[in-house]
């Protein structure tokens, strides 16, 4: 048990400290050369409330010689220089510090204060306990998210578990710095026998790091495909595929679609490897069509049909641009009872929101038109900028007007229960799924 292994690593001298000795100021006095990031007046409260991101614009000055380097542990203080927490510094990113622990937490439990290795152990132990309480993993689901960045208070780190394989996705400089320690802790998770590291190259450039995909290629060999089960449906996952290789965050939504598909004609747009499609067919759909522009995804989706011994007469996957597919379907006056539209991230940055809204509107307008009147459309956005700026629903209303259809919102949801969202950090929320009745 990882929790038992980790607790044994904590030194008794720290756990025995008195409440007075456990304050950040006192613990920091034993760390020579520790820099202090001092905030501007009025900028501390949002951090005390739980937001882990210290923006560079909120910093008044930095005390310490030599100056801290990217990845260094630093104290964070309010305008009066009173410590409010500690975190990891970045000299380049707009996120000057990613907070790891607040002062009040250090006072309650100083065992991992200013110590990233011990903090990683503590955070992973808590994440494992929480997933177990949610029934993950289980006999019918062994694909789940173990660490969800800010949701598990490890901003910039994602860990998805696929059976015996854990895929680690890095999008912060500190994660790259602590790679050996992270891989060590992940390797101790019960059932995990292999780890695979994925660096978000473009995001890490903004963190001041130049990371190439060659690092991934230099890892120990891993089976090209991993067999997993989710809600009793089997999938082949490629750890080198999109994101971590499988969209585990859609698990509960795939379960919902499965429950709504009996006897229906289902269209799965941007189907990737067939997650929604296979769930719909297992749920009793009359026929399912999946569409994606990626040939490798379509090939894996077809393999998943064989993996589940499903009837090939009732399911088909098509390699085609979804916009062109829907236009051709409209020309044939073809409609479906249930439609799923789960496009890739169209608004990766706030500055492209305007054009992204237009793309979402056009796609959803077409999707509404190929949905039978009285049918269901599940439409999704994984663009955090859309969710955070509350633009997705107004965009859907615009799409309905454009399509000449009326819509009613039946359900609005985010990711599965293991994809924790920190309510004090709304920018961490990125996935929105809306189930519509189209008439």
Would you mind describing this structure in some detail?
InterPro entries: PUA, PUA-like_sf, PUA_sf, RlmI-like_PUA, SAM-dep_methyl-trfase, SAM-dependent_MTases_sf. Its main location: cytoplasm. Belongs to the methyltransferase superfamily. RlmI family. It is found in: Cytoplasm. Helix content is 32%, strand content 26%. The protein is an alpha/beta fold and 439 residues long. The strands form four sheets. The protein has a seven-stranded mixed beta sheet with strand order 15-14-13-16-17-19-18, with helices on both faces. About 5% of the residues have low confidence.
Helix-strand blueprint:
Elements: H1 2-7, H2 12-15, H3 24-28, E1 36-39, H4 45-48, E2 53-55, E3 59-63, E4 73-77, E5 83-89, E6 95-102, H5 103-108, H6 116-133, E7 143-148, E8 157-162, E9 165-170, H7 173-177, H8 179-187, E10 194-199, H9 201-206, H10 214-217, E11 226-230, E12 233-237, H11 251-260, E13 265-269, H12 275-282, E14 287-292, H13 295-307, E15 315-319, H14 322-331, E16 336-341, H15 353-369, E17 371-381, H16 384-388, H17 392-403, E18 407-413, E19 432-438
Parallel strand pairs: 1-4, 9-10, 13-14, 13-16, 14-15, 16-17
Antiparallel strand pairs: 1-3, 2-6, 4-5, 5-6, 7-8, 8-9, 11-12, 17-19, 18-19
């Amino acid at each position: 048990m990882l929790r038992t292994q980790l607790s044994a690593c904590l030194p008794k001298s720290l756990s025995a400290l008195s409440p007075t000795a456990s304050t950040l100021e006192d613990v920091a006095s034993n760390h020579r050369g520790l820099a202090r990031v001092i905030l501007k007046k009025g900028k501390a409260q949002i951090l005390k409330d739980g937001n882990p991101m210290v923006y560079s614009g909120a910093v008044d000055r930095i005390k310490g010689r030599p100056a801290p380097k990217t990845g260094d542990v630093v104290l964070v203080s309010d305008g009066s220089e009173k410590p409010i927490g500690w975190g990891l510094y970045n000299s380049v990113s707009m996120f000057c510090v990613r907070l790891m622990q607040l002062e009040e937490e250090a006072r309650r439990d100083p065992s991992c204060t200013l110590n990233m290795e011990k903090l990683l152990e503590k955070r992973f132990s808590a994440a494992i306990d929480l997933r177990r309480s949610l029934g993950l993993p289980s006999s019918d689901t062994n694909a789940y998210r173990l660490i969800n960045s800010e949701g598990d208070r490890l901003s910039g780190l994602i860990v998805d578990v696929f059976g015996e394989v854990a895929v680690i996705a890095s999008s912060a400089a500190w994660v790259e710095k602590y790679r050996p320690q992270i891989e060590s802790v992940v390797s101790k998770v019960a059932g995990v026998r292999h780890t695979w590291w994925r660096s978000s190259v473009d995001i890490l450039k903004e963190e001041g790091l130049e990371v190439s995909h060659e690092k991934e290629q230099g890892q120990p060999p891993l089976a090209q495909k991993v067999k997993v089960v989710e809600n009793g449906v089997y999938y082949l996952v490629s750890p080198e595929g999109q994101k971590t290789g499988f969209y585990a965050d859609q698990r509960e939504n795939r379960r919902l679609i499965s429950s709504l598909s009996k006897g229906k004609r289902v269209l799965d747009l941007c189907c990737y490897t067939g997650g929604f499609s296979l769930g719909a067919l297992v749920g009793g759909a009359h026929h399912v069509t999946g569409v994606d522009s990626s040939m490798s995804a379509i090939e894996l989706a077809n393999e998943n049909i064989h993996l589940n011994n499903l009837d090939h007469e009732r399911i088909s996957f098509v390699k085609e641009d979804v916009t062109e597919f829907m236009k051709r379907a409209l020309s044939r006056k073809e409609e479906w009872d249930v439609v799923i539209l789960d496009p890739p991230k169209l608004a990766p940055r706030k500055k492209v929101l305007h054009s992204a809204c237009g793309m979402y509107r056009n796609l959803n307008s077409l999707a509404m038109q190929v949905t039978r009147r009285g049918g269901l459309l599940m439409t999704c956005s994984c663009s955090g900028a859309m969710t955070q700026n509350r633009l997705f629903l107004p965009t859907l209303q615009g799409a309905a007007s454009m399509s000449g259809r009326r819509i009613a919102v039946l359900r609005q949801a985010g990711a599965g229960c293991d994809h924790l969202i920190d309510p004090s950090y709304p920018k961490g929320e990125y996935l929105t799924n809306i189930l519509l009745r189209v008439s």
